[in-house]
Structures are given as C-alpha cells and as structure tokens.
Amino acid sequence: MKHVVVVGASAAGLAAVETLRREGYEGTLTLIGDEPYHPYDRPPLSKQILGGQWEPDRVPLRSAADLDALGLDLRLGVTATGLDLAGRTVALADGARVPYDGLVIATGVRPRRLPGDGAERAHVLRTLDDALALRDRLGPGRRLVVVGAGFLGAEAAAVASGLGTEVTLLEPAPVPLAPAVGERVGRMLTRAHHDHGVDLRTGVMVAEVADGGVRLSDGTLVEADEVLVAIGSVPNTGWLEGSGLPLGDGLECDEYSAAAPDVYGAGDVARWHNPLFGTAMRIEHRTNATEQGMAVARNLLSPEARKPFAPVPYFWSDQYDFRIQAHGWLRGHEEVAVVEGALEERKFLAAYRSGDRVAGVLAVGMPPKAVRTWRQAVATRAAWRDAVGELVPEGA
Amino acid sequence: MSGAGGGAGSGEDKGVTMRVEVDVPKCVASGQCVMIAPDVFDQREEDGIVVLLDERPASELHADVRESAVVCPAAAIRVVEK
C-alpha cells in the first residue's frame, strides 16, 4: 500500500492517520478536511466554548508540531465531491483528483435543518464557527429558543441559561430523550430543566423558523432573539452518491467497518455491524470516532489479520451541575432498572436490558468504580438475571 | 502524542523513557484510561477525574499508555517519549 487517503479531518480521521503511522505505514498519507482548521475537539463546543470558559486555542486535538511529525499531505478547507471506486480516485472541490490504494471515509454529519432556518435567522451547533457565533448572542436580556431537547439542545440550553439567557426549549416528544435513555431518566432530565428556569415545552411541533422566532405547527409564534436548531444530524454521504458504495443511514459497512475492498468508514458517518451487540449501529459520539478510526487503520494495513470492530459505545453529556455517562447500546432497550442510588437525588446508576442481557448502563454522580464494574457487565454481555434480577418490561 | 516515529511493539521500547502528562481541567471522567492502563491511571472517588499514578511508566506499559492517550475522549493525556 503506497497511498492512503483519509477523507474527514476530525477525530476519526485524525485517529486513522495517527494509527497508520504508529503501525508502521510509511507511504503517502493524504488527510482531507472541509473546514480550514487543524483537527479539533467538538464536545467542548456546546460546553466550555459556548459557555466562554475556553477560547478556541483549547480545542485543537494536536499541536502543529505533532501534526507535522505525521508527515501528512494535509488538505484543509477543501471538500471531497466525488469518488471513482473502480479508478480508486477521490475528486475534490478544487479540481484535484487524489488517487488511493486505501481509503478511509470519515466525513461525519451535518445538522438537520428546519424550513426557513437560513444563517441570518437561526444557529446550528456543529463547528467551532457555529459555537462562537452563538456564544456572541447569549447573555442577560437575550431570549433564545432551542428547537430539540436532545443531548446537544439540552447542553446548549443549560449553558445559555447559566449565562443569564432566557431560554425556551421546544421538544416534539412528551418526554425528552425517552427513546435514548428511557422514560424515567427522561423525566429526571425534564425536572432538571425546570429547576434551572429553562422553559421546556414538550409535545410541541415546530413548523419553521420565522422572523422574530419560530412558528409552531398550530400557527403560534414563539418569540426569540436567537434560535438554535438542534434536531439531529444527517450523515455527509452526498459526495458518495452514484459511487456504488452502499448508502443508507450513513455509509453502510460490515463488521470490519469496511464498505468495499480497501475502503473503510469511521466515525459519525459510518453505520456498521457491531458483533458484540449483534446489531447495526451508527454512533455520533466522540469516543467511537477515535476507536473506529484506529480500528479501520489497523484493518486496512493488515487485511490478513482483520478484526471485527466490537466496541462498548460510550458517551457523556454535561447538563447544569451534573454529568451523564453511558456505556453500551441503550437504543431499543426493553427494561430499565435503577440498580444503585436514587433518580430523585440525581445520583444513580441505571441498567438497560435488551433480550436477556445487560445492554447498557447510565450513571449520574456515581463513584467511578461502580460505573466501571457495570460497564464490565455490558462488555461481557452479562445475563440480566445474574446482574440485576427478574425481567420486568419497562412501564410494568 | 509522540507523533510518527517508532514501531508499536512494546519490545522496541527498551531504553525509551516515557513521561506522562495529564491536563486535569480537560478531563471528562470517562475512565477509559483506567480501563486500559490501570497501573498508570486512576480516578478520583468523588468525581471520577483522572489521577496520574505513574508519571514515568516502565517500558512494558508504554503501549497501553499510548493507547490511553489516543482513546481519551477529552484529549487530556499527553505522552512525551525520548
């Protein structure tokens, strides 16, 4: 292998190029990113950057010297526009054609939009520039409407409220995040918003962003000085359409995270079959980006010794004065049991069941040893009956 | 991160000195480093923030420490090798 191309210069792409070098790959290594910046960390955007505790100089993932040492053909500020799979060439917006022997696709996701939410009317929160633009508009005397009470919307609402902004949080579901974390944990989050003076309105459908706020489906205008749209993300696969690669909800990969011979997907854009949980998943979390970038680099370099990518997914979210941490695959769970602590005190550990196994664990304010022990139960796919007890469907 | 040089095998680390630095304000208490290199990292009981147990780990631990630095979701671990 003489030329590896990595498309996407965020956490997954960076992990891929670093791992390739660490594992001894000495050929040409091209890293392509559509943003003009060196690889930087995204979780702080909705936390320390938005809150003003950090300036942008804290978010680069590596120093310029460390990047230099990788010996990259680094192309920033340029978008990949097409892929010729048979000819093994990536087309770039600047007209360049980059040949490859091995390809890693790590183009991430972009925010889903609402009708009428042009840049002059509404914010999104994905890039450093997005975060800085929103940060400039927060503070006492300002009214912010956040559309979507998922993790990102909730974090942004908490930070904006902490800065003195008057925040309204609009959510179509009756309980925020219930599909992700279950009804009881979702209601705990609801209470946290209310306790901190955020006006959370559930069961509310937003039709469009309008002049002076957002218009609900019943015609009501919710007034705001600023609007943040946080209604999920869309995988950046447009440049791969017509390439012959399998596209669905992201780039469809196998258990090795491969989409075609010598073509791998990593990070938010990649949907792959995780054999540990026996299901396909696409994960938009920071840790997965790195782990998947490392895994595909190793599989690309050692085709005879490829390993299935079988991680225990992990995410965390900072909201107000507490941090949520979760290990495993919580989606589609059939039962939630609080196995340590108490929800009301916002110090608890909840286990999630799928089938007869422990599929995941979510903790707030618990000692790290307890969290690690339960994470191990997920990693070993422990039987629910042994770890928790009798099976009781959620809501029963 | 030490960048590109060198191979991955721990056997090649004889004579290489490693210094580990942690950026405590960046730490998000994920515990990933403790799961990979429990002889080098621990977590504070009250909030899970990283505790560096061994600033200059022995050569047989180097591969795990490098892995911890790469996997850290807060990029809070830096490894300097000479």
TrEMBL record, chain A:
Gene Ontology cellular component list: cytoplasm
Cofactor(s) the protein needs: FAD
Claim: Nucleotide-binding is one of the keywords in the record: no
Keyword tags: FAD, Flavoprotein, Oxidoreductase
Molecular-function annotations in GO: oxidoreductase activity, acting on NAD(P)H
Residue ranges constituting the Reductase C-terminal domain according to the UniProt record: 314-384
This protein's name: FAD-dependent oxidoreductase
InterPro entries: FAD-oxidoreductase/Apoptosis, FAD/NAD-bd_sf, FAD/NAD-binding_dom, FAD/NAD-linked_Rdtase_dimer_sf, Reductase_C
Chain ranges of the FAD/NAD(P)-binding domain: 3-293
Claim: Oxidoreductase is one of the keywords in the record: yes
